[in-house]
Amino acid sequence: SMIAAFYGGKSILITGATGFLGKVLMEKLFRTSPDLKVIYILVRPKAGQTLQQRVFQILNSKLFEKVKEVCPNVHEKIRAIYADLSQNDFAISKEDMQELLSCTNIIFHCAATVRFDDTLRHAVQLNVTATRQLLLMASQMPKLEAFIHISTAYSNCNLKHIDEVIYPCPVEPKKIIDSLEWLDDAIIEEIAPKLIRDWPNIYTYTKALGEMVVQQESRNLNIAIIRPSIVGATWQEPFPGWVDNINGPNGLIIAAGKGFLRALKATPKAVADLIPVDTVVNLMLAVGWYTAVHRPKSTLVYHSTSGNLNPCNWHKMGVQVLATFEKIPLERAFRRPYANFTSNNFTSQYWNAVSHRAPAIIYDCYLRLTGRKPRMTKVMNQILRTASMLEYFINRSWEWSTYNTEMLMSELSPEDQRVFNFDVRQLNWLEYIENYVLGVKKYLLKEDMAGIPEAKQHLKRLRNIHYLFNTALFLIVWRLLIARSQMARNVWFFIVSFCYKFLSYFRASSTLKV
Question: Residue ranges of the Thioester reductase (TE) domain (predicted)?
Answer without folding.
Answer: 14-284
